[in-house]
Specification:
- The structure is a single chain.
- By secondary structure, the protein is an alpha/beta fold.
- Among the domains are: 204 residues, Rossmann fold (3-Layer(aba) Sandwich); 58 residues.
- It has 16 helices and eight strands.
- The chain has an eight-stranded mixed beta sheet with strand order 3-4-2-5-1-6-7-8, with helices on both faces.
- α2 packs across α16 and α4 packs across α7.
- The longest helix is centred in the C-terminal third of the chain and has 34 residues.
- The chain is elongated, with a radius of gyration of 28 Å.
- The chain starts with 5 loop residues before the first helix and ends with a helix.
- The structure holds adenosine-5'-triphosphate (ATP) and magnesium ion.
- Magnesium ion binds next to α2.
């Protein structure tokens, strides 16, 4: 296996943006936070952009409110001259900020008050991905940090992070929206009377479905948006370029499970097509490598034999010395332990096979492994442990 040297990556001054991607629940947020902390304690000025971190993890980084600006994390070892800032993405606030930056006060207010804008900015699928990229662009533009670590939204598929902004862009620039907003744009122009009438008919039918009020809202919203931004898609394209820029690296986080690794393999291919540099794969929550010599088969056989013997015996040992001093309950306990041991070995085996399959498809991809810790990771100490295993393996 081709090892991913995380410390080389985070120590390299040429590494400016690290994006942690992966399918839902694999450990993106944890990895992003752990990398940020490690890089800061090794001397870099880091900001971590997290998305929906678990509450306790957020608290441990001093993130108690969703205020959309980076906060300095205390209790970080700054003796090497580095520092750590962290923030939670506030999707709606980021969207509002774009509006405020690009429209005059009156128009901005008009957009912000529009109910269609309100539902779009807080719930449209893809908005979170888009806003994460937008925020990354903003953080980058400040030039304040020498390393930005980005977490990505909890989407089902890692590919969503790359696809969603384009999708949102095409939705906003798209045909449906053009039709909806047509009367607002073409109304009153003589030459387009015929077209206008056609649009009128169409929106007439539409208004029956979506309601006149909403339709008017959508029309004003889109018209205002169009004049203020000149196209969302263009904006999405610009942010997308940052991901291809020098200094940006992707880390694909995956659990050592079939589905997660299949996803990861797709994602690796996709990064290749998009010319986005992959630093490597973080295999998270790996179970320890084979311990002891008792095989799964022998454990199970022994467990079965013990259970059988337990079934055939009375609750009180006839002879209180030697082997027979074990009661059926004790025998069952040992049988249970042996079964657990066998199951663990099988998990380890399965993980190993899955990993081998991945590395045979993508032998060029470097891999760093993080063991499964016994409990959740919800404080700086836990993040350090993750960082340590990322760094030194
Ligand atoms: N190596 C590990 N050992 C033990 N627990 C872990 C490990 N990595 C992550 N966890 C725990 O797994 C849970 C999910 O992790 P995390 O929130 O980082 O995943 P995620 O990919 O960001 O999820 P989502 O897709 O929902 O955003 C958390 O409770 C976290 O503490
Ligand atoms: Mg997360």
């Amino acid at each position: 296996m081709n090892r991913l040297e995380i410390d080389e990556l985070i120590d390299d001054p040429g590494t400016r943006i690290l994006v942690c991607c992966g399918s839902g629940g694999v450990g993106k947020t944890t990895t992003a936070a752990a990398l940020g902390l490690r890089a800061a304690e090794r001397g870099r000025d880091v900001v971590v952009l997290t998305i929906d971190p678990a509450r306790r993890l957020a608290q441990s980084m001093g993130l108690t409110e969703l205020d959309n600006t980076p906060r300095r994390v205390v209790d970080v070892d700054e003796s090497k001259g580095g520092s750590l800032h962290a923030m939670m993405l506030d999707m709606k606030r980021t969207f509002d900020e774009i509006v405020e930056q690009h429209a005059d006060r009156e128009r901005a207010q008009q957009i912000l008050d529009n109910p269609f804008y309100q539902s779009l900015s807080s719930s449209f699928a893809g908005t979170q991905e888009y806003m994460a990229m937008e925020k990354l662009g903003q953080l980058h533009a400040t030039g304040e940090w020498d390393l930005i670590v980005v977490d990505t939204p909890p989407s089902r598929s890692a590919l969503d992070f790359l696809d969603a902004p384009q999708r949102l862009g095409s939705f906003l620039d798209g045909r449906l929206i053009r039709i909806l907003s047509a009367p607002a744009k073409v109304g009153g122009r003589g030459a387009l009377k015929f077209l206008s009438a056609g649009m009128g008919l169409m929106t007439g039918a539409l208004s029956k479905v979506v309601g006149t009020h909403l339709l008017t809202d959508i029309q004003t919203f889109v018209a205002a948006l169009d004049t203020t931004f000149g196209g969302f898609r263009k904006r999405a394209d610009a942010t997308y370029k940052l991901l291809q820029a020098r200094g940006t690296s992707f880390l694909v986080v995956a659990a050592p499970e079939k589905d997660a690794l299949r996803e990861a393999a797709y994602f690796v291919d996709r990064l290749g097509t998009e010319r986005m540099p992959l630093a490597g794969l973080v295999l998270n929550r790996v179970h320890a490598t084979r311990a002891g010599r008792l095989s799964a088969e022998r454990s199970l056989a022994a467990a079965e034999a013990l259970a059988e013997r337990a079934d055939g015996e009375s609750e009180q040992p006839a002879d209180p010395v030697g082997d027979d001093a074990l009661r059926p309950a004790d025998l069952r306990l040992v049988a249970g332990l042996l079964t657990l041991h066998a199951e663990r070995l099988r998990v380890i085996d399965r993980e190993e096979r899955t990993r081998t399959r991945f590395t045979s498809i993508h032998p060029e991809v470097r891999v760093a492994e993080v063991p499964a810790l016994p409990g959740d990771v919800h404080d700086l100490a836990g993040l350090r442990v993750i960082g340590e295993s990322l760094g030194t393996g």
